[in-house]
Amino acid sequence: MDLATQPVTGKHRDAYLWRLLATAASFALFGLGGLCLRLLVFPLLACLPGDAQAHRRRARQTVSRLFWFFVRFMARTGVLTYDIQGAERLGRPGQMIIANHPSLIDVVFLIGLVPHANCVVKQSLWTNPFTRGPLRRTGYISNDGSLEMLDAAADALKDGQPLIIFPEGTRTRPGQPPAFHRGAAAIALRGARLLTPVIIKVSPTTLTKAEPWYRIPSRRVHFSFRVGADIDPQTFAAQGPAPQASRKLNDHLHQFFIKELAEDERSAP
Protein backbone atom coordinates (compact mmCIF):
# COMPACT_ATOMS: atom_id res chain seq x y z
CA MET A 1 0.00 0.00 0.00
CA ASP A 2 1.39 3.38 -0.97
CA LEU A 3 0.03 6.53 0.64
CA ALA A 4 0.36 9.99 -0.82
CA THR A 5 -1.28 13.32 -0.39
CA GLN A 6 -3.35 14.77 -3.15
CA PRO A 7 -1.86 17.91 -4.71
CA VAL A 8 -2.99 21.07 -2.94
CA THR A 9 -4.39 23.42 -5.52
CA GLY A 10 -4.11 27.17 -5.44
CA LYS A 11 -0.93 29.21 -5.55
CA HIS A 12 -1.80 30.81 -2.19
CA ARG A 13 -1.09 27.46 -0.51
CA ASP A 14 2.59 27.72 -1.47
CA ALA A 15 2.90 31.28 -0.14
CA TYR A 16 5.37 31.78 2.67
CA LEU A 17 3.03 33.74 4.95
CA TRP A 18 0.24 31.21 4.55
CA ARG A 19 2.55 28.30 5.40
CA LEU A 20 3.95 30.18 8.39
CA LEU A 21 0.46 30.75 9.78
CA ALA A 22 -0.54 27.16 9.04
CA THR A 23 2.60 25.91 10.79
CA ALA A 24 1.80 28.04 13.86
CA ALA A 25 -1.75 26.68 13.84
CA SER A 26 -0.42 23.12 13.59
CA PHE A 27 1.82 23.52 16.64
CA ALA A 28 -0.99 25.16 18.60
CA LEU A 29 -3.30 22.29 17.65
CA PHE A 30 -0.69 19.75 18.75
CA GLY A 31 -0.24 21.41 22.13
CA LEU A 32 -3.96 21.75 22.77
CA GLY A 33 -4.49 18.18 21.66
CA GLY A 34 -1.94 16.95 24.20
CA LEU A 35 -3.67 18.83 27.01
CA CYS A 36 -7.09 17.57 25.86
CA LEU A 37 -5.82 13.99 25.93
CA ARG A 38 -4.43 14.42 29.41
CA LEU A 39 -7.35 16.29 30.98
CA LEU A 40 -10.37 14.92 29.14
CA VAL A 41 -9.92 12.01 26.74
CA PHE A 42 -7.76 9.66 28.82
CA PRO A 43 -9.80 10.11 32.03
CA LEU A 44 -12.90 9.15 30.02
CA LEU A 45 -11.14 6.15 28.49
CA ALA A 46 -10.07 5.05 31.97
CA CYS A 47 -13.75 4.66 32.88
CA LEU A 48 -14.23 1.98 30.21
CA PRO A 49 -14.05 -1.68 31.27
CA GLY A 50 -10.96 -3.79 30.70
CA ASP A 51 -7.60 -4.67 32.20
CA ALA A 52 -4.40 -2.62 32.02
CA GLN A 53 -3.50 -4.06 28.64
CA ALA A 54 -6.89 -3.09 27.17
CA HIS A 55 -6.56 0.46 28.51
CA ARG A 56 -3.06 0.74 27.07
CA ARG A 57 -4.27 -0.52 23.69
CA ARG A 58 -7.10 2.05 23.62
CA ALA A 59 -4.70 4.83 24.59
CA ARG A 60 -2.25 3.92 21.83
CA GLN A 61 -4.97 3.68 19.24
CA THR A 62 -6.34 7.06 20.29
CA VAL A 63 -2.91 8.71 20.06
CA SER A 64 -2.31 7.07 16.69
CA ARG A 65 -5.59 8.36 15.24
CA LEU A 66 -4.99 11.86 16.54
CA PHE A 67 -1.43 11.86 15.21
CA TRP A 68 -2.69 10.84 11.78
CA PHE A 69 -5.34 13.56 11.96
CA PHE A 70 -2.52 16.00 12.75
CA VAL A 71 -0.54 14.82 9.71
CA ARG A 72 -3.59 15.23 7.49
CA PHE A 73 -4.24 18.68 8.95
CA MET A 74 -0.73 19.79 8.00
CA ALA A 75 -1.14 18.31 4.55
CA ARG A 76 -4.56 19.89 3.95
CA THR A 77 -3.39 23.31 5.07
CA GLY A 78 -0.40 23.18 2.73
CA VAL A 79 2.37 22.85 5.32
CA LEU A 80 3.68 19.63 3.80
CA THR A 81 3.12 16.79 1.36
CA TYR A 82 4.11 13.17 1.86
CA ASP A 83 4.36 9.76 0.25
CA ILE A 84 4.67 6.43 2.05
CA GLN A 85 5.78 3.20 0.39
CA GLY A 86 5.20 -0.15 2.08
CA ALA A 87 3.05 0.96 5.04
CA GLU A 88 1.16 -2.36 4.97
CA ARG A 89 4.31 -4.13 6.23
CA LEU A 90 4.42 -2.14 9.46
CA GLY A 91 2.83 -3.23 12.73
CA ARG A 92 3.51 -6.98 12.76
CA PRO A 93 3.85 -8.73 16.15
CA GLY A 94 7.32 -8.41 17.65
CA GLN A 95 8.48 -6.17 14.80
CA MET A 96 11.13 -3.59 15.57
CA ILE A 97 10.73 -0.58 13.29
CA ILE A 98 13.99 1.30 12.98
CA ALA A 99 14.21 4.69 11.25
CA ASN A 100 16.52 7.61 10.69
CA HIS A 101 15.42 10.86 12.30
CA PRO A 102 15.70 13.95 10.06
CA SER A 103 12.76 15.91 11.52
CA LEU A 104 10.81 16.56 14.70
CA ILE A 105 7.60 14.98 13.41
CA ASP A 106 9.00 11.67 12.10
CA VAL A 107 7.61 9.91 15.16
CA VAL A 108 4.19 11.49 14.59
CA PHE A 109 4.04 9.91 11.13
CA LEU A 110 5.17 6.48 12.30
CA ILE A 111 2.87 6.28 15.33
CA GLY A 112 0.04 7.49 13.12
CA LEU A 113 0.74 4.61 10.74
CA VAL A 114 1.09 1.88 13.41
CA PRO A 115 -1.88 2.16 15.81
CA HIS A 116 -0.77 -0.35 18.46
CA ALA A 117 2.98 0.28 18.39
CA ASN A 118 5.14 0.90 21.41
CA CYS A 119 7.83 3.56 21.01
CA VAL A 120 11.11 4.56 22.63
CA VAL A 121 10.88 8.33 23.14
CA LYS A 122 13.40 10.81 24.47
CA GLN A 123 13.37 11.39 28.20
CA SER A 124 12.67 15.14 28.02
CA LEU A 125 9.16 14.48 26.68
CA TRP A 126 8.24 12.88 30.00
CA THR A 127 8.53 16.28 31.73
CA ASN A 128 6.74 18.23 28.98
CA PRO A 129 3.21 19.16 30.15
CA PHE A 130 1.80 18.63 26.66
CA THR A 131 3.21 15.12 26.21
CA ARG A 132 3.79 13.50 29.60
CA GLY A 133 0.13 12.52 30.09
CA PRO A 134 -0.24 10.68 26.78
CA LEU A 135 3.17 9.00 27.24
CA ARG A 136 2.25 7.58 30.63
CA ARG A 137 -1.14 6.32 29.44
CA THR A 138 0.28 4.63 26.35
CA GLY A 139 3.13 2.94 28.21
CA TYR A 140 5.78 4.23 25.81
CA ILE A 141 9.38 3.71 26.94
CA SER A 142 11.62 6.54 28.11
CA ASN A 143 15.02 6.62 26.43
CA ASP A 144 17.06 7.25 29.56
CA GLY A 145 19.96 5.05 28.47
CA SER A 146 19.57 2.64 31.36
CA LEU A 147 19.66 -1.14 31.36
CA GLU A 148 16.05 -1.05 32.53
CA MET A 149 15.13 0.75 29.30
CA LEU A 150 16.80 -1.98 27.24
CA ASP A 151 14.96 -4.64 29.23
CA ALA A 152 11.61 -2.88 28.87
CA ALA A 153 12.05 -2.52 25.10
CA ALA A 154 13.13 -6.14 24.65
CA ASP A 155 10.24 -7.36 26.84
CA ALA A 156 7.75 -5.35 24.76
CA LEU A 157 8.99 -7.07 21.60
CA LYS A 158 8.85 -10.50 23.24
CA ASP A 159 5.27 -9.68 24.25
CA GLY A 160 4.43 -9.26 20.56
CA GLN A 161 4.27 -5.47 20.51
CA PRO A 162 5.62 -3.60 17.47
CA LEU A 163 8.32 -1.18 18.63
CA ILE A 164 9.40 2.06 16.95
CA ILE A 165 12.92 3.28 17.69
CA PHE A 166 15.31 5.90 16.31
CA PRO A 167 18.88 4.60 16.82
CA GLU A 168 20.36 8.10 16.55
CA GLY A 169 18.64 9.10 19.77
CA THR A 170 18.19 12.63 18.44
CA ARG A 171 17.51 14.33 15.12
CA THR A 172 20.09 14.11 12.34
CA ARG A 173 22.07 17.29 11.78
CA PRO A 174 21.49 18.62 8.24
CA GLY A 175 24.23 17.67 5.81
CA GLN A 176 25.61 14.94 8.06
CA PRO A 177 25.06 11.17 7.86
CA PRO A 178 23.09 9.50 10.66
CA ALA A 179 25.13 8.23 13.62
CA PHE A 180 23.58 5.16 15.26
CA HIS A 181 23.97 4.17 18.90
CA ARG A 182 24.33 0.48 19.62
CA GLY A 183 21.37 0.31 22.02
CA ALA A 184 18.85 -0.29 19.22
CA ALA A 185 20.86 -3.24 17.89
CA ALA A 186 21.13 -4.68 21.41
CA ILE A 187 17.35 -4.46 21.83
CA ALA A 188 16.75 -6.14 18.47
CA LEU A 189 19.04 -9.05 19.34
CA ARG A 190 17.37 -9.55 22.72
CA GLY A 191 13.73 -9.44 21.69
CA ALA A 192 12.81 -8.67 18.07
CA ARG A 193 11.22 -11.30 15.84
CA LEU A 194 12.13 -9.19 12.83
CA LEU A 195 13.67 -5.81 12.19
CA THR A 196 12.27 -3.50 9.51
CA PRO A 197 14.08 -0.31 8.43
CA VAL A 198 12.17 2.80 7.38
CA ILE A 199 14.12 5.32 5.33
CA ILE A 200 12.87 8.87 5.88
CA LYS A 201 13.75 11.78 3.68
CA VAL A 202 12.63 15.40 4.13
CA SER A 203 13.09 17.95 1.37
CA PRO A 204 13.87 20.72 2.05
CA THR A 205 15.01 20.11 5.63
CA THR A 206 12.75 21.43 8.38
CA LEU A 207 12.24 21.05 12.12
CA THR A 208 15.78 19.77 12.57
CA LYS A 209 17.60 20.04 15.89
CA ALA A 210 19.01 23.43 14.91
CA GLU A 211 15.77 24.94 13.54
CA PRO A 212 12.88 26.47 15.53
CA TRP A 213 9.35 25.80 14.23
CA TYR A 214 8.94 29.31 12.80
CA ARG A 215 12.01 29.05 10.54
CA ILE A 216 10.13 27.42 7.70
CA PRO A 217 11.76 26.76 4.31
CA SER A 218 11.08 28.86 1.24
CA ARG A 219 8.96 26.10 -0.32
CA ARG A 220 6.59 23.47 0.93
CA VAL A 221 8.20 20.46 2.60
CA HIS A 222 7.87 16.91 1.27
CA PHE A 223 8.23 13.88 3.54
CA SER A 224 9.10 10.53 1.99
CA PHE A 225 8.85 7.24 3.92
CA ARG A 226 10.10 4.01 2.36
CA VAL A 227 9.83 0.69 4.18
CA GLY A 228 12.86 -1.49 3.49
CA ALA A 229 13.29 -5.25 3.43
CA ASP A 230 13.02 -7.17 6.70
CA ILE A 231 16.18 -8.16 8.56
CA ASP A 232 16.41 -11.27 10.73
CA PRO A 233 18.31 -10.31 13.91
CA GLN A 234 19.16 -13.95 14.59
CA THR A 235 21.54 -14.05 11.63
CA PHE A 236 23.69 -11.60 13.61
CA ALA A 237 23.07 -13.24 17.00
CA ALA A 238 24.77 -16.38 15.65
CA GLN A 239 27.96 -14.47 14.77
CA GLY A 240 29.44 -14.30 18.25
CA PRO A 241 28.94 -13.04 21.82
CA ALA A 242 26.25 -10.42 22.42
CA PRO A 243 28.54 -7.34 22.34
CA GLN A 244 30.15 -8.48 19.09
CA ALA A 245 26.81 -9.37 17.49
CA SER A 246 25.38 -6.02 18.58
CA ARG A 247 28.30 -4.16 17.02
CA LYS A 248 27.97 -6.06 13.75
CA LEU A 249 24.23 -5.45 13.53
CA ASN A 250 24.64 -1.77 14.36
CA ASP A 251 27.36 -1.40 11.69
CA HIS A 252 25.11 -3.17 9.17
CA LEU A 253 22.19 -0.86 9.92
CA HIS A 254 24.38 2.22 9.84
CA GLN A 255 25.86 1.35 6.46
CA PHE A 256 22.44 0.36 5.12
CA PHE A 257 20.91 3.75 5.96
CA ILE A 258 23.90 5.70 4.66
CA LYS A 259 23.70 3.80 1.36
CA GLU A 260 19.91 4.15 1.03
CA LEU A 261 19.91 7.85 1.84
CA ALA A 262 22.75 8.46 -0.62
CA GLU A 263 20.84 6.62 -3.36
CA ASP A 264 17.76 8.70 -2.63
CA GLU A 265 19.83 11.86 -2.98
CA ARG A 266 21.22 10.74 -6.35
CA SER A 267 17.76 9.82 -7.66
CA ALA A 268 16.16 13.09 -6.53
CA PRO A 269 15.24 15.44 -9.38
Automatic annotation (TrEMBL):
GO molecular function: acyltransferase activity
InterPro entries listed in its UniProt record: Plipid/glycerol_acylTrfase
Pathway the protein takes part in: Lipid metabolism
UniProt keyword annotation of Cytoplasm present: no
Domain of life from the UniProt record: Bacteria
Residue span, Phospholipid/glycerol acyltransferase domain: 95-203
Keywords, comma-separated and alphabetical: Acyltransferase, Membrane, Transferase, Transmembrane, Transmembrane helix
Keyword Disulfide bond: no
SMART domains to which the protein is assigned, alphabetical: PlsC
Membrane spanning residue stretches: 20-48
UniProt cross-references to Pfam families, sorted A to Z: Acyltransferase
Name this polypeptide is given: 1-acyl-sn-glycerol-3-phosphate acyltransferase
Organism, as annotated: Pseudomonas ekonensis
Lineage: Bacteria, Pseudomonadati, Pseudomonadota, Gammaproteobacteria, Pseudomonadales
